[in-house]
Amino acid sequence: MKKDGFSVIMPTYNQATFIRRAILSLQYQTYPNWELIIINDGCTDDTDFYLKDLLLDKRICYLKKQENKGMGCAINQALSIAKYQYISYLPSDDFYFKDHLQTIYNTFQESNDIVLVYTGLQYENTDTLYHTGKIKDKRGKPNYCLQLVQTAHKKTDDRWLERNEEVTEDLFIMFWNKLLHRGIFAMTNQISCFWTSHPSQRHCIIGEKYGGGINKYRRYYNVKSPIRIRVSKEKFIDENILYQKFHNTTICKDNKPLKILIVGELAYNPERIYALEQEGHKLYGLWINKPTFCFSTVGPLPFGHVEDLNSDIWEKEIQRVQPDIIYGLLNFGAVSLAYKVLKTFPKIPFAWHFKEGPSICLRSGEWDKLIYLYTYSTIRIYLNKIEKKWFEQFIPAKGLSFIMDGDLPKKDYFKDCFSPKLSSKDGEIHTVIAGRMIGISDQDLQLLAKNKIHIHLYTENYHFSRQSQINHYKQISPNFFHAHPHCAASEWTKEFSQYDAGWLHCLKSYNNGDLLKASWDDLNIPARISTYAAAGIPILMQNNPNHIMATKECIKDLNIGILFKDYQDLSNKLKDKELIDKLKKQMINQRELFSFDYYVPKLIELFKKAIELKKQ
Question: Is it the case that residue 130 has pLDDT exceeding 80?
Answer without folding.
Answer: no
